[in-house]
User: Which sequence fits this backbone?
């Protein structure tokens, strides 16, 4: 639903940080990975509910990183 808050699952995506470190835009990454800007934006903004391993692999190849560089987990605050 538009405008709804990101999922509270505890998984955090660090795509902004990795793109900045590599001086790469979301558009450039989308072209290299073969997905739309919209789909990468959903991932970047923490609104993705899932990611395909093939997409994760392509992102890691394009950014020369490991999945753990892109994703981290912290317990959610249920209070």
Assistant:
């Amino acid at each position: 639903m538009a405008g709804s808050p990101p999922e509270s699952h505890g998984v955090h995506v660090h795509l902004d940080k990795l793109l900045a470190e590599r001086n790469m835009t979301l558009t450039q990454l989308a072209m290299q990975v073969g997905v739309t800007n919209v789909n990468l934006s959903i991932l970047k903004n923490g609104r993705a509910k899932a990611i395909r391993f093939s997409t994760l692999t392509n992102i890691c190849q394009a950014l020369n990183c490991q999945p753990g560089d892109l994703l981290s987990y912290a317990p959610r605050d249920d209070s």
Observations:
- The chain has a mean pLDDT of 89.
